[in-house]
Design goal:
The chain is 27% helix and 28% strand. The strands form 5 sheets. A 5-stranded antiparallel sheet has the order 10-9-11-16-17. It is of the alpha+beta class and 258 residues long. It is globular, with a radius of gyration of 17 Å. The two termini are 30 Å apart. It binds magnesium ion (MG).
Length: 258
């Protein structure tokens, strides 16, 4: 069941989304060689808590469940470096120049979620890697542009695919975008490729987290022994961008913006 959010509910999601954007800007400013992903995580958690928000990822067990469990996610942010696609766990690793780092963060305000991610380039990287990062960002923006009333969810997927495929990029299929609201992951799924189904009709009040994940290699990914970190199987570089958006009468509104 796909729910349509009221104006008031979207206002709460807008506040959560703004905090997500603020955290990504803070992390961007601190993302220099030598900083550890744990230091970035602390910065993110402090910012959310100071604003009265709750991190969406901390203590997450999957399938909408949270708990104090050794398998729960141990971070406010996901920090995924180079061939890591998503869900990297913050820790003692120091960032080095020449890396690409995807930072994903979720915030809960008054029970409503915001979810966003950006991939940052640290220092200089080969042009093919920089092009991958830019193509993934462009794929996200193309997907968002298709999120207008009267279109279908499948139109978002197609718009993303139409940026990724001509560039020769691998499109990760195992992880996809999603509806979002009082749960971090709600219906519908938003694939980053055409499935052959048109998907649900987009109507005002539908809120989605759109999140293309592209690689310099193929689409195959696997989960590392830590139980969370998703890496490309061929070791190729991966990039990830995400915004939470609301479909409105005036078109898509990006909620994860400052
Ligand atoms: Mg997401």
């Amino acid at each position: 069941m796909v729910s349509r959010k009221s104006r008031r509910e979207i206002e709460s999601m807008r506040r959560a989304g703004r905090l997500v954007a603020e955290v990504l800007a803070l992390v961007e400013a601190e993302l220099k060689p030598g900083v550890t992903t744990r230091e970035l995580d602390r910065l993110a958690e402090r910012h959310l808590r100071a604003a009265g928000a709750t991190p969406s990822f901390l203590g997450y067990l999957g399938n909408g469940r949270y708990g104090k469990d050794p398998h729960a996610f141990r971070g406010t942010i996901c920090a995924s470096i180079d061939d890591e696609v998503v869900h990297g766990i913050p820790g003692d690793r120091a960032i080095r120049g020449g890396q690409i780092v995807s930072i994903d963060v979720g915030a809960i305000v008054d029970g409503w979620h915001g979810d966003g991610a950006r991939t940052f380039i640290v220092g200089s990287v080969p042009s093919a890697t920089a092009d991958l990062v830019e193509a993934t960002r462009a794929a996200l923006m193309a997907g968002i542009a298709a999120a207008v009333p009267g279109n279908r969810v499948g139109d978002i997927s197609g718009a993303i695919e139409d940026v990724a495929v001509p560039g020769g990029y691998g499109i990760v299929r195992q992880f996809v975008g999603h509806g979002i609201g009082t749960q971090m992951h709600e219906e519908p799924q938003v694939t980053n490729y055409r499935t052959g189904a048109r998907g649900i009709l987009l109507q005002p009040g539908i809120c989605l987290a759109i999140e293309p994940m592209l690689t310099l290699g193929n689409e195959e990914v696997e989960v590392k022994a830590d139980g969370w970190t998703v890496v490309t199987t061929d070791g190729s570089m991966a990039a990830h961008f995400e915004h939470t958006i609301a479909v409105t009468d005036n078109g898509p509104e990006i909620l994860t913006m400052v």
